[in-house]
């Protein structure tokens, strides 16, 4: 992955400006997430923000006259922090490749990549999904129940997908995505499939949620959805480099982005609190005693280090776990402290702050809870101590 050459602060300034309209529709989307697709079309610069590769982006993101691909994790963390500073729910609800694009980058052959990006590069916004988590087994791939089996009625060796996925971002509005299923028992039996949502047997229903409501978390119900061998990702790769391998690399690269999202929400709440506490010196002093300004700077440095580590080696996850753990905690603590400092009616009188308190809690679960991150950090430390030089191989 090429190291980005655009300075962070220049990229940050451009995206901050571009992201302003996200804040304007923040509370509208929070009230009614189903309105987001129309608002995206009407009010947002979605083409620049959709994260499409430069080759299929009609209006690329430009900084100081240069086109920014936004493909490196280092660039993505700056971009997503600024989008979340405007509004994390709307940012996560934008059309584009997001997580499924990472799996396509890792596993798709040329024809599958063209099929995916030809759809995304069209004139209309296209949403995608990443389907891993299940109702009874969460995001633990070892317990996955969704199956990809041979269809006995298919004359040409077709397959069928059966199962349920839950907490899938943008599920109800997606046109295409990547879905993980079990094709056979064992760690190598996990398979990723490129899937259009228009297929028979595919249904998506929105879930009622409290935080980042713009993402419209959904349940996907798969009742014998027909799948061809051409839809199965990674067939040209060795068995060890398919489903699980790609999932781990995608998580490792997306975790610094989740940390950046949490950081963006914390930054937004901090700026808001600083502004609204100016008139009340006592409350302001109490809030300032937390030293949130310094904590934000410290966590930003951690996120940057994690992003650089992921760009260097997408198999590495320890720095990303540490950054996500710390950023999530800061977002939770800061948003609550800001609401408290604004008095007993703080959340009622400041709807944006109330929203940020709710939004901050989503990051605890996205990409694994804090306990699971702690386990990852401990595992990385133990492997390093064992002296194998591959602290992040797991
Ligand atoms: C906003 C949002 C967006 C999401 N988007 C998607 C998406 O697009 N696609 C998708 O597939 N999923 C998505 N998810 C689901 C998300 O990835 C999972 O909910 C998350 O990874 C947590 O996994 P889990 O539900 O299996 O919980 P678990 O990991 O089972 O955790 C449940 C509880 O048990 C604790 N726990 C678990 N293991 C241990 C352990 N070994 N030791 C101690 N404690 C433990 C945890 O800390 C937690 O308190 C999303 C979730 C959210 C909130």
Structure notes:
It is a single chain. With 394 residues, this protein is an alpha+beta fold. The chain folds into 3 domains: 8-94, no CATH class; 126-237, Butyryl-CoA Dehydrogenase, subunit A, domain 2; 243-385, Butyryl-CoA Dehydrogenase, subunit A, domain 3 (Up-down Bundle). The protein contains 14 helices and 9 strands. The chain has helices at 8-24, 26-31, 36-43, 46-49, 73-92, 98-107, 110-120, 243-276, 281-288, 292-312, 318-341, 346-349, 351-365, 370-385, and strands at 61-63, 66-68, 127-131, 147-150, 159-168, 174-182, 190-196, 202-206, 218-227. A 4-stranded antiparallel sheet has the order 4-5-9-8, with no helix packed on it. Strands 3-6-7 form a 3-stranded mixed sheet, covered by helices on one side. A two-stranded antiparallel sheet has the order 1-2. Helix 5 packs across helix 10 (292-312), helix 6 (98-107) runs antiparallel to helix 8 (243-276) and helix 11 runs antiparallel to helix 13. The longest helix has 34 residues, at 243-276. Residues 389-394 have low confidence and may be disordered. Flavin-adenine dinucleotide (FAD) is lined by residues 130-133, 138-140, 167-169, 212, 215, 217, 362, 365-366, 368-369, 371-372, 375. Flavin-adenine dinucleotide binds at residues 130-133, 138-140, 167-169, 212, 215, 217, 362, 365-366, 368-369, 371-372, 375.
């Amino acid at each position: 992955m090429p190291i980005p050459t655009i300075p962070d602060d220049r990229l940050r300034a451009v995206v901050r400006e571009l992201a302003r309209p996200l804040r304007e529709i923040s509370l509208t989307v929070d009230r009614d997430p189903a309105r987001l697709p129309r608002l995206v079309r009407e009010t947002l610069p979605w083409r620049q923000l959709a994260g499409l590769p430069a080759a299929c982006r009609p209006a690329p993101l430009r900084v100081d006259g240069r086109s920014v691909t936004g493909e490196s994790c280092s660039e993505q963390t700056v971009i997503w922090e600024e989008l979340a500073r405007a509004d994390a729910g709307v940012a996560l609800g934008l059309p584009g490749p997001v997580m499924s694009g990472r799996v396509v980058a890792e596993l798709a052959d040329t024809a599958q990549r063209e099929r995916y990006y030809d759809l995304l590069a069209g004139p209309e916004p296209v949403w995608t999904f990443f389907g891993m988590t299940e109702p009874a087994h969460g995001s633990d791939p070892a317990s996955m129940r969704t199956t990809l089996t041979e269809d006995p009625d298919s004359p040409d060796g077709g397959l069928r997908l059966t199962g349920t996925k839950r907490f899938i971002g943008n599920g109800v509005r997606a046109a295409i995505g990547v879905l993980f299923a079990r094709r056979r028992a064992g760690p190598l039996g996990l398979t990723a499939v490129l899937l259009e949502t228009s297929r028979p047997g595919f249904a998506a229903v929105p879930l009622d949620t409290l935080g980042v409501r713009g993402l419209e978390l959904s349940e996907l119900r798969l009742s014998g959805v027909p799948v061809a061998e051409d839809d199965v990702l990674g067939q040209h790769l060795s068995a060890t480099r398919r489903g699980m391998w790609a999932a781990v690399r995608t998580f490792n690269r997306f975790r610094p982005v989740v940390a950046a999202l949490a950081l963006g929400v914390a930054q937004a709440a901090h700026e808001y609190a600083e502004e609204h506490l100016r008139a009340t010196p006592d409350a302001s002093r109490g809030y300032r005693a937390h030293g949130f300004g310094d904590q934000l700077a410290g966590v930003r440095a951690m996120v940057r280090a994690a992003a650089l580590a992921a760009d260097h080696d997408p198999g590495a996850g320890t720095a990303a776990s540490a950054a996500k753990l710390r950023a999530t905690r800061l977002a939770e603590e800061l948003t609550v402290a800001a609401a408290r400092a604004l008095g007993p009616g703080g959340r009622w009188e400041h709807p944006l702050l109330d929203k940020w308190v709710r939004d901050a809690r989503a990051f605890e679960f996205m990409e694994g809870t804090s306990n699971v991150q702690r386990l990852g950090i401990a595992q990385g430390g133990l492997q390093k101590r064992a002296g194998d030089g591959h602290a992040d191989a797991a």
